[in-house]
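EI: anyone free to look at a 181-residue chain?
SC: sure, send it
EI:
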Amino acid sequence: MTIYLIRHAQSAFNAVYDPKLPDPMIFDAPITELGEVQALKVKALVNHLNLSNVIVSPFTRTLQTANLIFGDEIPFQINPAVREQLCNSCDVGSPPSVLSKRYPHLDFDHLEDFWWHDGEKDHRGLSVEPDEILQERVNEFVDFLTRERVHSTAIVTHGNFIRAMTGIQPQNCEVIEFNAR
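SC: here you go
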């Protein structure tokens, strides 16, 4: 069961974020020019992997990364289960109606209007997703991968999701091979 986890390319949030400073409040951050370069480098790496499926988080940065890496060569499965843990403003997504206008070739009809974590708001007005809820979501997704015998698949996702799945905190556009149980 060969699965490749790909962290999204550098986003506008990643480019300016400093944990010692206030959240820059960049919601559903797009990728930067450096991010575009990172994604195109990964495209060259994954060309030889013989992939048949691409699962993508519905955030703008993952959709842009996946589009640059795979184009329209492999259909995308948009799956909110592989979204980022909501910790900062960049982890608040866009509703399906907005995503459908930006990406008319992709299907977002199965998404809820608020497909990201929603709970008690902090001082920034954000619903921070607890680690245990992230881990539960990751465990359910790994169970899905195993049960459905998913293979030859790239998953374009996020740093905290990959860390919860593998124990590795990846860099932007890092590719990590994953073998479920």
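EI: The two ends are 9 Å apart (CA to CA).
SC: 👍
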